[in-house]
Design goal:
Two copies of one chain form a homodimer. By secondary structure, chain A is an alpha/beta fold. The first copy, chain A, has 14 helices and 14 strands. In chain A, β10 and β11 form a beta hairpin.
Chain lengths: ~400, ~400
């Protein structure tokens, strides 16, 4: 940048990685592209009629309150609904005062980075780790320490060693159907991690954006039930079960953390959109949300299984991948000598978009990983797209 | 905080002032309180029926797109509308690419602080200055330099001296009906300031949240027309002309600044609520927004004039105050020896809420100032409230 310009940018923003996902999503807006790159829910489960009814009720019955300024904490009935959901799902007893409504999980991550990270502070994250969290936290310039994910969760020995060595301000994880890997931590792994976290006095941030998107009846405990309450901050989102367009999620943690988060929320944008909070709340109480979630799960399970079956049939055997029991993503690992960026380029030439793994690694590695989304493509697109991708992989591995 | 807790908070959040406004607003939720403390628009101009119609149209015609993830830049038709508004209001030619839709002015301020401020950087602000901006910027730990406001705008000599001495990363101002003072910069003042800004190569952040709320036909130029385009960043908001509950505003600046702001927006909350963006856009094109704004202006003018007339008649002559030509606030200056905090306490005992001036000063001063809001009270409340406040002031000054 020329030095004569009347501004220069902060180190903070210059050290924040720009979201490759969003840049790639722009390409995928082309109608001829079959995209496994994004993380969009299926449009089939965006209940426009239900939301329209809820909106009509809110605006006709209490419209002024829905259009006026509101409190930073969020709409009380919605916070009560979230608290009750914790009780139903996990037997976890939390108060509405422990909940802050945010503009989606991304904002919750930003707020947590803001209230906890001083420059240079150690932060522990999964490898591969969630890109949105890496972006949010990067703004506050921590030192990332990544712990390798296995099929059952983070490598226990590496996790323990990393926590003891670095003494992080927090450890961040997505224990259910992790983004990008699709891995769900086993109960045994959770218990071991909880022991290490408690022994080392480490705060755990549990991001449960995909926790309700499950393909099995097996239930896993929230870290909120495995750790003392001062050791956890829980994140949730309505993006996967109702609609991402309303940008509504939450933070649930002990009051002292919520208090600082409210200060950050005030300084960020005063409060979350109250019209949407009220519409969302009406939608949740006027509709059978559990049946809605069951229908989402049934459809995503079918899409995931189809994708896995095609991959089993068509992919070179050198390519390995996770077999998710929920969520929206499958994670591919390419053999040595193959580059995910190369596969991305070649797949795009065949009008198939994937997401290369590099941005999910805080150390610049990860060129052997690829994230595939199955929630936003119907059976026909999955068949066509995976078949084309199999062709690219065979060429690439044959050439390698 | 006990050292055994598994967390401690960042210096950033501990140095962010908690919003006194929002704390005070909680008190004012009591129905027996007459509140001049907040900054709420009149509920009479929250057009619930119009918004309901717009919502119905959006959800029935393009509901899926309104509930799905969207681009960080914001809804293109809404950005086009904003660009056209700049052309109509100021003859300013901007492109939709120069506009980022945010979750309200507060988020725009947060984003600007984030992309420009390194710790310790000088920032120039008005004294008294807008509390929301002080909060947003404080998170990034700048060094504030406040320039005293006079009736026509900032003191020119002090402004010039401050810019030359501190070389700030930016200078922030609200030239139209400033919050909290109600002062509108004169055209001459704007021209002088523009000259100083250009000479010193300083970026100006113009916050125009109240620019459409005018009680005279006299028009003032935007700094966007007085400065080279790389010297300005313009903020706008729909909170005062449509509805604050939707939390929608914008940043308008040259592409290089918008690019960094988009990175910050992605890391903050991915994108602004697209359901509300589309509803707002439909509302703007389906209704006569200029007539709507005229009605707001007419009502607020009447409320402001009534408040000023009562103050002229009833207040002790030692109390001086601004005579706003727009916006939502009047600023009182108490004589030496009187404390605004004291007046606030005594007024609250009589069920009248005001906002003491201290939080509007970055140097801890300002205990002689009081902000009064006239937009959110009807004639009866203004008469009762100002009469009671006059009693408190007479007692206080009599005792002083």
């Amino acid at each position: 940048m020329s030095s004569c310009l009347p501004y220069r940018f902060s180190r903070r923003i210059l050290s924040t990685p720009r979201s490759m996902i969003r840049e790639i999503l722009k390409v995928t807006e082309r109608p001829d592209i079959i995209s496994f790159a994004g993380g969009l829910p299926s449009p089939a489960f965006l209940d426009t009629a239900g939301v329209a009814r809820a909106a009509e009720h809110v605006l006709s019955e209490d419209g002024c309150a829905a259009l006026q300024y509101a409190t930073s904490e969020g709409y009380l009935p919605l916070r009560e609904w979230i608290a009750e959901r914790y009780r139903i799902r996990f037997g976890l007893s939390v108060n509405p005062e422990d909940i802050l409504v945010t503009h989606g999980s991304q904002q919750t991550l930003d707020i947590l980075g803001r209230i906890f990270i001083n420059e240079g502070d150690p932060v522990v994250i999964e490898a591969p780790g969630y890109l949105g969290a890496i972006q949010a936290f990067s703004q506050y310039m921590p030192e990332f320490h990544a712990v390798r994910l296995d099929d059952e969760g983070p490598d226990i020995a590496e996790f323990s060693e990393t926590l003891k060595r670095t003494r992080p301000v927090f450890s961040y994880c997505i224990p259910n159907s992790q983004n990008p890997s699709g891995v769900t931590y086993s109960t045994g792994c959770r218990q071991e991690l909880a022991g290490i976290l408690e022994d080392t006095g480490t705060l755990l941030i549990e991001d449960d954006a995909y926790g309700e998107i499950r393909f099995t009846s097996e239930k896993q405990p929230s870290f909120g039930t495995l750790l003392p309450w001062e050791n956890v901050a829980l994140l949730g989102s309505f993006s996967k079960i109702v609609a991402p367009g309303m940008r509504l999620g939450w933070l649930c943690a002990r009051k002292e953390i919520i208090d600082q988060a409210i200060t950050a929320k005030q300084a960020s944008d005063l409060h979350s959109n109250i019209l949407s909070q009220r519409i969302l709340y009406r939608y949740l109480v006027e509709n059978d949300i559990d049946s809605h979630i069951s229908r989402i799960n049934s459809a995503y399970r079918t899409q995931c299984n189809l994708m896995l079956r095609l991959m089993d049939d068509l992919f070179p055997e050198e390519v390995s991948y996770t077999r998710p029991d929920g969520g929206m993503f499958i994670w591919l690992t390419l053999p040595e000598g193959c580059s995910a960026m190369e596969v991305w380029k070649r797949a795009l030439e065949k009008n198939v978009a994937i997401l290369p793994g590099t941005p999910f690694y805080t150390d610049g590695g990860g060129d052997h990983g690829i994230r595939l989304n199955f929630s936003n493509s119907d059976a026909e697109k999955i068949e066509t797209g995976i078949t084309r991708l199999a062709g690219v992989l065979h060429e690439d591995i044959g050439a390698g």
